[in-house]
Amino acid sequence: MHHFKTLFSDLWGPSPILSIDKKLYYCIFVDHYTKYTWLYTIKNKSEVASIFANFHPLVEKFFKHKIVSLYTDGGGEYTGLKQYLQCHGIQHLISPPYTPQRVAIAERRHRHIVETARTLLNEASLPSELWSFACHHAVYLINRLP
Questions:
Q1: What's the order of all strands across the beta sheet hosting 37-42?
Q2: Which segments constitute the Integrase catalytic domain (predicted)?
Q3: Distance CA 31, CA 98 (A)
Q4: Pairing outcome for strands 25-31 and 6-12
Q5: Cβ of 73: how many Cβ atoms within 10 Å?
Q6: What are the sequence ranges of the domains in the chain?
Q7: Angle between helices 131-144 and 104-123 (to 10 degrees)
Q8: What is the pLDDT of residues 20-41, one digit of tens each?
Q9: Does domain 6-144 have CATH number 3.90.950.10?
Q10: Which residues lie across from 6 on neighbouring strands?
């Protein structure tokens, strides 16, 4: 097993609070091997395909590893990726309906991100509208924890 052989992805949202940068969702990509996480805040679910299309070449160029498979929960936001994944030889693995345990890595990461972001905002007495920035900072911190 090596870095980026399998990535897990999941969408979180919609947030009950519109962020200050007008975002309602975030999408994460988690490397199965290292658990390194990338987070992208988005306005609409439909942005997931374009986010991955930009993310994929950056990862392969920077880390010099080919993404072999993308594991998702089968949400409709990933249907726009089908052709892109086929063209780039990336296998799309989809968990069966109502089995969040199949993408437990991403689901658990959501919980860690949201709890950390809420704590950061609460401890700094910052407004909830800054949740998107707090989530980015939470991922930065989580990626550096042992």
A1: 37-42, 25-31, 6-12, 69-72, 91-94
A2: 1-146
A3: 22
A4: antiparallel
A5: 21
A6: 6-144
A7: 120
A8: 999 999 999 999 999 999 999 9
A9: no
A10: 69
